[in-house]
Amino acid sequence: MSGSPSTRKARIANAANVMYTNAVYWPNHRFYNGDTPGSLNYGCINRVYYAFANVMADGGVFLSDEWADATAPCDGVQGALGSLMHLKQRYPHLQVVLSIGGGNSAETFPIVASNTLLRDNFARSARGLVEASGLDGIDTPVVWEYPCSPQQGADFLALLAAIRLHLHEDHYLLTAALPAAKQVLQNIDLRRASEYIDAINLMAYDFFGSWTHRSGHHAQLYAMNKDEPSGSSGVQHIMAAGVPAKKILLGIPLFGRSFLHVSGPGHKFRGAGGEEGSFEYSNLPRRGTKEQVDKRAVAAQCVGGDGGFVTYDNPDTVKIKAAFCKQKGLGGLCYWSAPSDAKDTKRSLITAGFRALHSS
């Protein structure tokens, strides 16, 4: 399953020749819904983040579901990760990166990151897993609920440094998923972090949801009020901190957030529809509703039916976000998560993003 470092180096160089990155997350639990990596369109995807591997209290990294990842019949081979390794041989431009951060990682990551020995164990263990599987690198940490103090920010930096010691940049990718929220980003020395990592996957969504006081566009590119978070302000903050624009991937949600008993953003709502307040993009707009686009915020919405006010991205908003990426010189787009995309090419956000990034 493994590829030699020289071929991996060629693959990374090969991918760098693609003008923009169009990356997707593929969560392993989706295997149980009948989704497989083989059903994706790799004409529009050049990187897959396989989520999640778990981290143990001693810093060890391990596959979170051996059956789904490496054993179960999937696309004619063994395991969903096995399928992606197989797909890499068919598509020379494809990179497969392991996302670490499932299970109890939110509690475990800060402890591991704060200890020299555990950081080293984490880095060695991650490298072992990457080499054994033939992966192109790792993405970390996704479900550590982010460094929430300057000390944790420093620990996060130390963890990146430890990983880089074992996963050299000429052979392996190292990326980090971070929220587009200033209160988190301000705890990290982003310029120094960018010296270790190849990309920041900026989660420019979940700005509003069942946990906020008011309804709002959950993935708005531009805020209507200056105290609201937005994709553009997140990008601006990271670039102002000294991160090269080409190292930023703008995150696109393949799900919508629901607010009941309101007809738009900025209102007090009562409850949320869907599963834990969200609907998969492939199930939007909701039945009996009409899709509209808020061009100022750059957000799609539908109102009525079982979702109340549902805010999400559609092909039109993704095209505008892709144009924003090009204008700012960003590295591209990333999507959470691929199995929720529309099967119809005309509605597919992954396809819309890829085409808009690579059109003149």
UniProtKB/TrEMBL annotation:
Superkingdom to which the source organism belongs: Eukaryota
Stretches assigned to the GH18 domain: 20-360
GO BP terms in the entry: carbohydrate metabolic process; chitin catabolic process
Enzyme class: hydrolase
Keywords, in A-Z order: Hydrolase
The EC number(s) this enzyme carries: 3.2.1.14
Pfam families tied to this protein: Glyco_hydro_18
GO CC list: extracellular region
Keyword Cell wall biogenesis/degradation: no
GO MF annotation list: chitin binding; endochitinase activity
Family assignment from sequence similarity: Belongs to the glycosyl hydrolase 18 family. Chitinase class V subfamily.
Protein's recorded name: chitinase
UniProt source species: Podospora didyma
Phylogenetic lineage: Eukaryota, Fungi, Dikarya, Ascomycota, Pezizomycotina
